[in-house]
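Dig into my protein:

:::
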Amino acid sequence: EAEIIVRALLGMRDVELGPNSTVLRWVHARGTLEAREGTQLLGRATSDRTLILAPGVTFQRIEADTILVAGADPPTPTLPKQRTPWTPRGGAQLGERYWRVLGDVEVPAGAVLEGALVATGSILIGEGALIRGSVKAQELLVVCRGAEVEGSLSAWRGIGIEAGARVVGPVIAEEDITVEAATIGVPGGRTTVVGNVVMLAPGATLHGAVMANTGRVPAT
């Protein structure tokens, strides 16, 4: 199909950008905004309702009540029937709900931590684990399948969020962020994802804004 290039576009209702379209500055829809395969959103793309991204879309700043990445259905996570209370071994408890660890930390699968966790190394949150607070790593931060974080994620390096995981608060990294078919934010409560390169896999669902030097939905 022919490529269409627009500088700016305001849609009073729904807006559909056909395959291989390019938006140079901004596009806003007061209804649903859908970007088809190969669309380049070079400026700002926003919707008052839902923003749907097809595989192969690239972007810099997107924002909507709900952002859906087409191409796969979000998985239903298999949560543990009972989580086991856990605190980091060798960690310093600096407050009632605040733990700090020197080096790397691995939160066991199916564990629950009541409070925030900070580490000077990398953090791996195991499958089905629950953190009732924010998580900050000076190195890499990975949230495994079915894990939940009820606060924010931040890392000096990259962040990976696997399929079926859920993060309520902001996700911020100095380097790259990869979001598989996971959920970030909650309906009616917008949050923010900020990274150098942000990769959104098919099935990802976000509520709020995503800002990146390069944002991409991998082509299938």
User: Anything to note?
Assistant: The longest strand covers residues 58-69. The two ends are 18 Å apart (CA to CA). Residues 61 and 211 are 5 Å apart (CA to CA). DSSP finds no helices and 26 strands in the chain.
